Structure formats: C-alpha cells, structure tokens
Amino acid sequence: xTVLQATQLDLLPTGEQVLVFREEDCSRDAQKQLKDLLRLVxxxxxSAPQADxxxxxxxxxxxxxxxxxxxxxxxxxxLLTEAYRxxxxxxxxxDEMVLDRTCQAGVNRIWVRExxxxxxxxxxxxxxxxxxxxxxxxxxxxxxxFSQPTYAGQRLAETYCGRSDILVYRGRHQLAAN
Length: 178
What we know:
By secondary structure, this protein is α+β, with helices and mostly antiparallel strands. The protein has three helices and nine strands; from the N terminus they run ββαβββββαβαβ. The chain has a nine-stranded mixed sheet with strand order 1-2-3-4-7-8-9-5-6, with helices on both faces.
C-alpha cells in the first residue's frame, strides 16, 4: 500500500512512522486505499460490513515501516462527547453501564498486523491519536472510548487507560468501509 497525502506525526528510531489521514485532505486514490485497508481491518476484526462508505468525521492513523512501506497497524479515531462507562467493557449489560459525558474521543477500530502484535504498535497509535485529535491538546487516557472491543481490544483498552471500567460506545458513530 502506497501512502498518499498524509501528515507525518512521528519518525521513530526503529524506522516506523505514524501518519494521519482525514477524508477532506485525501485524494480519491488515497481514500480508495484507506477503504481497502479498512476492509482488511474489518475482516480481520470480524466486523460486519456496513453500507455507507463515508470516512467523514474520522481520522485514520496508520503506522508504516519507512523502509518498505508495510502497514504495521491502523487506528480509526473520532471526536466524541459521550460514551458509557462500563464495569466490564463491552461485556456489560446496558443496566450496568453509566452515561459519561466527559468522553473526548473514540477508537472506532484499532488493528495491528499479526506479526507486529505485542510490540507497542497499538500504544504508539493510541498516543498519536491522543496528541493529534485536537490541535495543541493531549486527550486524557481515561476519556477515550472504544467501540465494541474484542476480548484482546478490551485488555488493551484497560491496560492503556489504567482502569477496568473503560468507556465504550456504539450506534450512529460507526465507521463504514464498503
């Protein structure tokens, strides 16, 4: 995958870089490549395909290896103002969840290539999102919501946020990549 029209956030000493994409800044070719990447992410995460192909309102953070351009991981983020504080993450029933209006952003999808898991790629993507969603402001870790996390995603969220009652969200804020 060739990276087009992205803002480079970091060049890491290990030869990786984090890039951020916004739909309004991308050419049609770049949007197509992002949608292809998101189809792969959705397939690997077991997400159901959705009808609306719009990326509007999302920022897509992609970590690539500088030397060969391989995609190591991808995070789809969006600004949010409310989510649900859940004592058991996505496994909690609606009765257990409490509306939280202090949420700052949501992680719609986070994916790391299988051979690069447990190497810090996801943490670097989350850090990149926190530092670049709002100009000149770093989001609080415990005010980031996660959309329908897998079991591994929930463990990542709990570890990253430093608490077991993570924020979760779903519904009209979902990404479609078809």
